[in-house]
Amino acid sequence: MLHAIVMAGGSGTRFWPASRAALPKQLLPLAGERTLLEDTVARLEGLVPPERVLVVTSARLLDAARRQLPQVPESGLVGEPCKRDTAPCIGLAALLVSRHDPDATMAVMPSDHVIAPAAKFQDAIRQAAALVEAAPGRLVTFGIRPTYPAESFGYIQQGAALAVAPGAAPAHVVARFREKPPAQVAAEYLAAGDSLWNAGIFVWKAATILAALRERQPDCLAHLERIAAAWDGPDREAVFAREFAAIKGISIDYAVLEHAADVVVIEAPFTWDDLGGWSAVARQRGVDAEGNTIVGRHLGIDSVRTIVHAAGDHLVVTMGLEDMLVVHTPDATLVADRTREETVRKVVAELEQRGWQEYL
Amino acid sequence: MLHAIVMAGGSGTRFWPASRAALPKQLLPLAGERTLLEDTVARLEGLVPPERVLVVTSARLLDAARRQLPQVPESGLVGEPCKRDTAPCIGLAALLVSRHDPDATMAVMPSDHVIAPAAKFQDAIRQAAALVEAAPGRLVTFGIRPTYPAESFGYIQQGAALAVAPGAAPAHVVARFREKPPAQVAAEYLAAGDSLWNAGIFVWKAATILAALRERQPDCLAHLERIAAAWDGPDREAVFAREFAAIKGISIDYAVLEHAADVVVIEAPFTWDDLGGWSAVARQRGVDAEGNTIVGRHLGIDSVRTIVHAAGDHLVVTMGLEDMLVVHTPDATLVADRTREETVRKVVAELEQRGWQEYL
Fold it and tell me: How many CA within 13 A on the CB side of residue B48?
């Protein structure tokens, strides 16, 4: 059976002050009316029933995730006691779904990307699941056709093409995974045309990824197995906290994918945006005639190419602004040159350094 | 005896959103810890006792003024039922102080200017009072030596010099009053060197200004006399509302000063700033090494020549700003190109037009 694993433990700092330690990007309605997490789970409707959705977030976000996902049963919500990157997260999910479904196929996905339309996403996941059924030892990834020489994404170089059904998305053997490249290298990838952005979405058998972890990350898997063994007993919380903390954090890409033999990449037939900053929000929400993107109550006078994001009934007035970013929240406001949105993270680092915890 | 008349009915819109209809400039601590009104009354300490201070504000600001001026007796607070410019305000004050002191001398002053030091201000007022005692029909004004070709002030051209005591401020007969000039004309005044900015501060006998109003504005004075006659009776409020509303608004300059024979101007020996906008606030409060002026909680990253004014514990973070203005209040925030601070008034006009009364 197909299970969906939604990774929702991220703690992005690019959307401060809208995003906070206790309310990160995936829990915010950045791209529309619903939060990114709500959208991610809604996108599964008709593909995976809620009882086969497993949302793995951090313990302190569990309550917020629970409130946003009333359709997911309590057993489908896992709160990691600490951050350990994607391999431990995915390994634990594989163990948990395998308990009742040893032949489980997992579709693993981030919770903070914008993907549309849902039907094409579901088609692609079904296509991947079929590829896995045909060759159970196979790991399927998804790649996004690059539109610019991005430095902030990993790349997947396509090897030999696989035969696919008419109308299905192109699928290739993965020639190699490539780390986030400098601009010059990214431009070469773009020119060559055979590399895709790694979307961080995967489909595989739980048994396959567990076998790979057993081979490549035996310590990690041993800790995870102790957690899974205690899962239905009275010591779950204590064992989870102790054993998970003892794991060395590592991504599934480094831990498994880069070393695996049979990896396939499907070129995503859906649109994809990792919403890496406010300009991505503007792309998703659209701009008005003056190039402005406004969320909230706003009065603009001679303001162009400006993003305004205000909470509640607070009024933001902008006058004579060009390429600016104004984010208002009840306790903190950011006003920034929009071309520097990449450095919003510096603000969070600076606040931490000053000990201004209440704004984090 | 010397009485101080503090005109506090202004409803400036240049400091929106910090200033509001219910909390205009004079009631805000724009230049320091105290509000401009508090500073204005404190400046009189030692010159005029609180029981001879008359604060004339608008009825809806009366409570706020009362809270800021606990030292002023209730009889020293007057709330105009509507706005009628300075001549009716001053005429009413003259009638009220004359009731118990027919020979009263009045020092009339705005409540929203920054003046320092207090000792020099008091010296100048005493000098003016002496000029009035020497020639009771005389009207004394104060002029500020221009430092740039301002278009936003009226000018007073100096005529023949008066003999003054050693150390006293220069005093001249007024040759003429000049309206707010266009830039070219202002530059000519500045070059000629014989014109001063009209500070809107006056010293005269109550009887003298009443005689002038009787001659020049008999209707206005008739209404005011009906108000004064009812002042100590049960109908004060009703008569005040009815008669004051019936007066045609006019400034004391147009009504009297421009037509009077014996007008003297003292060149102010104190520093003066009418605090016409946020840049004036920055002048008063000073700037840091990056040219920023910060009031409130702020974190600046690569921001220069920027003014930040935040209320309470709200944190404002600025990143990559140059010559910007950020004013945060609990329900509204203004972010503006600082070079356009003159047009902050447009914001208020636009809010009125949209019917967004709650932010005015």
Answer: 30
